[in-house]
Structures are given as structure tokens and as C-alpha cells.
Amino acid sequence: MTTLIYAEWYKLLRGKVLAIILACVTAQTVIQVLGQYTTTGEPPFPGQFGVLVAANGSFLLQVWLSAFVGYFVASEFQNGTMRNIVALGKNRTQVYLSKLFSACVAIAAIYGMITIVATAGFSAVFGFGDMAFKEFISFFTWHFFMQILYHLTYAAIITMFAFVSRSLGMTIILGFGYMLVMLFFPGFLSRVGLEDMDEYLPGYYISGFGQLSGDPTFVTKGIIVTAAYFVITCIIGCIIFNKSDIK
Q1: Distance of CA 124 to the CA centre of its chain
Q2: 174-198 per-position pLDDT tens digit
Q3: Is 45 helix (H, G, I), strand (E, B) or coil?
Q4: 73 Rama sector, left if φ>0, alpha if ψ -120 to 50, beta otherwise
Q5: Vertex 57: Cα angle to 117 and 24 (nearest 5)
Q6: Spatial separation of the C-alpha atoms in residues 33 and 53, rounded to whole Å
Q7: Residue 152 and residue 175: Cα distance in Å, rounded?
Q8: Which of these, 42, 127, 152, 188, is most buried using a 10 Å CB contact count?
């Protein structure tokens, strides 16, 4: 397992996929900052709240993650790399977990890049804000790591899509489709009188964390829901991969 993790880490650092994704994320965030700056009537967004930007638009983060997992994981089924790994006798569960590790690193890197660029960009155009440095460090650290934790759900789900579809294109399509469903599903639940059910969706805690982070019950429920989705999708993905015939 350690060898597989090291190999994934090496590919992350030496490969171009994550670097390209991060460059695209940087450009997207810069455009978002400039758009906020040039839109009249919009209230200023101080740089101290830059850590919340990715959470407020996490559907775009899912798109970038889908692209990463498609190129970094699913494409290995199409170019024969996965077949060679399995032929070497590597434990399939460990192989799956090593790929999931890469997706988790990617989600942290993408979220980190958005946060850094948003914090710097909004500070440049709107000012940093009146939060004291010590208070900011506490605010930033808490929100940054908790949001990465909550976003790990997406890493697990899209990794499962990659192993189910074994296709770069289908992984991106499934990831995008999941994003659209989760974007509109809470509204559907509200219309049919089941608005309380959205508490069982990971996105509920991601989008509401900035406003409700002081509520211990909200935080705890978010961790439980995230862990449940993460473990369940991981188990499903491992079962499918272990039972599949790799050609």
C-alpha cells in the first residue's frame, strides 16, 4: 500500500494534470474576483472571507475534480495502465484506495488554490477586512480544514464514478450530472414538503458551514454525513473493482 501511495504522490508531483487543473482554477477565481469588482451594486467581499468562496460555489470545484479524476484515474483503464497494475498482482482494494488518495489530495489542492487566490484577490480590490490577525488565523484554519473534510465526499463519489465507467469522458459526464442533480435536488425536496431531508446531503453542510460554523450540532451532523457518504461509496467502488474483469 505504501508503494502505491508513493507512486501516486510521485505522479501528482511530476505529472501535468493537477498543474493544469490548478492553473484553470486560478484563472476562474481571478475572473470571479474581477466580476465581483466590476459588478455595480454588489457589496464588497473582504479578503478575510476568501476561504468561503469555494464553498459558496463548490459545484465548480466538482467540475474541476471530475476532470482531474477522469484524466488521472479513469484514463488508466483506457490506456492499459490499470491492466498492467492488476497483472502485477497488486491488491485491488489497495489500488482503489491509492487512487482515492490522489483524488483527496487533488480536492485539497484545488480548494487551497481557490482560497489563496480569492483571499489575495479580494484583499487587493476590497481590502482585507477588520478581522484581527489572530482571529483571522483561527477563522481561516477552522473553515479551511473543515471544508476540505466536507469536500472529501466528492472525491469519494467521483472516484467511484471513474471505476464504474472506466472512461475519461463518462467520469466527467457523471461528475457533472451529479453536480446538477445536487444543485437542484434541495429545491425539489422543498417543493414536495421534504426540505428537512436535505440535511442528509453533503452539499447542505458545505454551503451552510460559513454561516452555521458555531453550531456544534451542525458541525457534527456534517462530519457524520460526510463520513457515511465517503465510506459507502468507497465500499461500493472497491466491490465493483474487485469483481470486474480488467481488459
Answers
A1: 26
A2: 998 888 888 787 777 777 777 777 7
A3: coil
A4: alpha
A5: 50
A6: 10
A7: 14
A8: 152
Q: Looking at this protein, which amino acid is placed at residue 167?
A: S
Scan for cell 431531508, then name that residue: 197
Cell representation of residue 73:
484515474
From 203, 240, 195, select the one nearest 95 (Cα to Cα): 240
- Residue 105 or 206, more confident: 105
What is d(CA 14, CA 61) in angstroms, rounded to the nearest whole number?
Answer: 22
Please give the C-alpha separations between residue 65 and each of 61, 231, 244, in angstroms, as whole numbers: 6, 19, 24
Q: Is residue 47 within 8 Å of 119, Cβ to Cβ?
A: yes
Positive or negative, the CA dihedral 194, 199, 205, 209 is positive
> What cell numbers appear for 4 in the block?
502505491
Name the one residue in this structure whose C-alpha cell is 482494494: 93
Residue 174 confidence (pLDDT):
92
Cα distances (angstroms) measured from residue 32 to each of 60, 97, 129, 176, 180: 12, 34, 19, 20, 20
Phi/psi at 130 (5° precision): -100, 15
In 178-193, which positions are buried (b, 16+ CB within 10 angstroms) versus exposed (e)? bbeebeeebeebeeee
pTM: 0.89
DSSP one-letter string for 122-160? HHHHH---S--HHHHHHHHHHHHHHHHHHHHHHHHHHHH
